[in-house]
Design brief:
Strand content: under 5%
Mean pLDDT: 81
Largest sheet: none
Order of helices and strands: HHHHHHHHHHHHHHHHHHHHHHHH
Helix content: 55-70%
Low-confidence stretches: 1-12, 111-120
Number of helices: 24
Radius of gyration: 24 Å
Shape: globular
Number of strands: 0
């Protein structure tokens, strides 16, 4: 279904949901077009104009109805707002006539003529824009933040949670990126040839974070945003189909995303609540997607390159190829986490390694490792760290401490589905603490 068809399908539904859909589908393209007209130094202005157009949709549509073509409405509004800005700003007075004519002649992005203007080696519009944002003169973290904001439509809150840093830090990172682009007159253009490979790592990381936000949504009621995950997989497929993106690490990322997406059908119960891995019906996992994941995992083995994507895909493969939870090869998973901790150390990797270690050597060993991580400020604000501690304490028979950790996890969790699961587990732990026996 095309963008217009997707929007139309949502038109009879919630206006907020529709504008959110349009923001993710159209914002990147509109910002790209406006930035080509204004110049990259006016990236913030382009983003502001698109944001204002979407805000007007939220304001007017509930009262006047959703237009027949919501995408065209957003485009037309953004265009008119841009013309107004040009007319108001004295800074652009000498360019007013030229810019106004260009905007007035501007057609819909999906028209053949406009598509031809973007013709480059990379055919997909969103992927092209990702490469354009990942200029090597901008620090990589800022490149990725810029992609998530400009191309993926993430808010500062979502980006901050993707990087596990504060919103203020992300705001500064975005400001620095825009300042660097403006001060160094970095052209906002679609790269080609060898330049694409220079920017590949940042693009891969951006796709990875886009998938992760969909895999475990940080806000709202839905735990899974399958639209984000499928878009990340689509971008990964586009990338591996291109000579500059057809690398083992690209196939490793694609395999990782496919392994995780294949488990979606069994990840939630009938009422939309999350199911833990041991409770999932593995017969419901998407077998065709698992087959494709294994195919790309085999392609990732070409050459001698081992990246964090390879190791994470290997861990996901261990889970997906086990007949049941009891037969999971935790020793191999622990070995892969040992390697990952050396290659890409982070408190989150260490926490996951502690889980694998607990499966192999017992809960006390896992708790001992987590005890060495308590200085990490990151883990003190990361709900899963308290869930893991609760699980291991419960296995050790200390249900009072398990309940305490679950209360803290609840305080830190905003997702409604996850809160329901934690509430159930807290009630069970409290009951076990009172009775001193398993509540089943």
């Amino acid at each position: 279904m095309g963008n217009r068809g997707s929007a139309r399908a949502l038109a009879n539904g919630n206006v907020t949901q529709l504008t959110d859909h349009l923001f993710r589908e159209e914002a990147g393209k509109l910002v790209s077009i406006l930035t080509r007209i204004f110049g990259i130094e006016r990236l913030q202005l382009a983003e502001d104009v698109v944001q204002e157009a979407l805000m007007r949709a939220l304001k007017f549509w509930p009262y006047y109805g959703v237009p027949d073509n919501p995408s065209a409405w957003i485009t037309r509004t953004a265009k008119n707002l841009a013309i107004d800005v040009i007319r108001r700003e004295a800074l652009f007075r000498d360019k007013q006539d030229q810019m106004t004519i260009t905007l007035q002649e501007w057609r819909q992005p999906e028209s053949p003529d406009d598509a031809a203007r973007f013709e480059t080696e990379i055919q997909d519009a969103r992927l092209r824009l990702m490469f354009a944002c990942c200029h090597p003169d901008v620090p990589m973290d800022s490149q990725i933040a810029l992609v998530l904001k400009t191309v993926c439509g993430f808010g500062v809150t979502e980006i901050a949670r993707s990087f596990l840093v504060s919103e203020a830090a992300i705001a500064k990172r975005l400001t620095r990126a825009r300042n660097t682009i403006r001060e160094h007159h970095i052209p906002f253009e679609i790269p080609a040839g060898a330049v694409l490979e220079e920017r590949l790592e940042a693009v891969l990381q951006s796709i990875y974070l886009l998938f992760n936000e969909g895999y475990k949504s940080s806000t709202g009621d839905a735990l899974i945003r399958s639209d984000l995950c499928l878009e990340a997989i689509r971008l990964g497929l586009q990338l591996t189909d291109h000579p500059s993106g057809n690398h083992p690490r690209s196939h490793a990322l694609l395999a990782l995303m496919l392994f995780n997406a294949a488990r979606f059908p069994g990840r939630l119960d009938a009422t939309g609540n999350i199911l833990q891995l041991e409770a999932q019906d593995r017969s419901r996992w998407d077998q065709s997607m698992l087959f494709r994941a294994l195919h790309h995992l085999s392609l990732s083995a070409a050459g001698d390159e081992v990246t964090s994507f390879h190791l994470q895909a290997g861990i996901a493969a261990c889970h997906c190829t086990a007949q049941d939870f009891a037969s999971t090869d935790w020793s191999r998973i622990l070995m892969l986490y040992n390697h990952l901790e050396l290659l890409a150390p982070s408190p989150i990797v260490s926490l996951n390694r502690a889980i694998a270690l607990a499966k192999v050597e017992g809960p006390q060993a896992g708790l001992a490792v987590i005890g060495t991580l308590t200085d990490s400020r990151l883990l003190e604000s990361y709900p899963l760290s308290f869930v893991v501690r609760a699980e291991l304490e419960a296995e050790m028979g200390d249900f009072h401490l398990a309940a305490k950790h679950l209360r803290r996890a609840l305080e830190l969790t905003e997702n409604a589905s996850e809160r329901r699961l934690l509430t159930q587990r807290l009630e069970r732990a409290e009951k076990q603490a009172i009775c001193g026996v398993s509540a089943g």
